[in-house]
Amino acid sequence: MAVLNLNILVIPTYNVDTMMVVDASTYPTDPPAVISPTIEVTPPGFETAVLPFSIDDYNIFTTSNLGITEEGVNQALPDGIYHIKYSIAPAFTNFVEKSIMRVDKLQERFDEAFMKLDMMECDQAIKTQEKVNLSTIYFFIQGAIAAANNCSTVNAMELYNKASKMLTSFMKQDCGCFGTNYK
Predict the structure, then answer these.
(1) Dist. CA 74–CA 135, nearest whole Å
(2) Of residues 42 and 89, which shows the higher confidence score?
(3) Distance between first and last Cα of the chain
(4) Residue 16 CA to chain centroid, in angstroms?
(5) What is the pLDDT of residue 2?
(6) Residue 151 region, left (φ>0) first, then alpha (ψ -120 to 50), else beta?
């Protein structure tokens, strides 16, 4: 017989406007007798949204249903650290909490920068330097995610901001021809 083990997964949607949370729990009965499944999502810089949670299913969140924008108006979800808590009654004993680093907007900018590199008409040494720069940016993005996954929120945001600053600088260049070569 299965025991109660609450678990959630945040699945990439590859869309800056949505976040998907999937119920990956095991329940002691089939179908599960779950009372008051609730999810609390705290986006960075905003109040906690308390919403019903669909068990054994996926749940899609937007700025509208998280209370960031008015109902029916969806915008890109903010990047940053999200705190998520899934609970069932009684909530004080049956819950699971996770913090995740959302970087979808930054990743979208990185993808744009990557495509810019492929279209440059510069010499090979300059292209190589730009590949090194993009690899460094990607390293900072992955570092931000790893730091957030390990509860190092200050470090996560420092790495995220460094990657964002480097991307902004990269995107301001015409073709990357600024005269430095990789080492």
Answers:
(1) 32
(2) 42
(3) 60
(4) 9
(5) 77
(6) left
pLDDT of residue 121: 56
**CA of 46: how far to CAs of 17, 83, 125, in Å?**
16, 11, 45
Region 8-102: CATH code: 2.60.40
Residue 125 pLDDT grade (very low, low, confident, very high; cuts 50, 70, 90): low
The CA–CA distances, whole Å, from 99 to 76, 116, 126, 148 equal 19, 33, 39, 7
Place of tokens 């992955």: 142
Task: Give domain limits for the chain.
Answer: 8-102, 104-172
Structure tokens at 69: 């924008």
21, 59 in Cβ contact below 8 A? yes
Residue 7 burial (CB count, 10 A): 12
Record the tokens describing residue 31, joined without a space. 């179908």
The pLDDT tens digits for 140-183 are 999 999 999 888 999 999 999 999 999 999 988 755 444 454 44
What is the DSSP track for 112-138? HHHHHHHT----HHHHHHHHHHHHHHH
Tokens matching residue 138: 């990607």
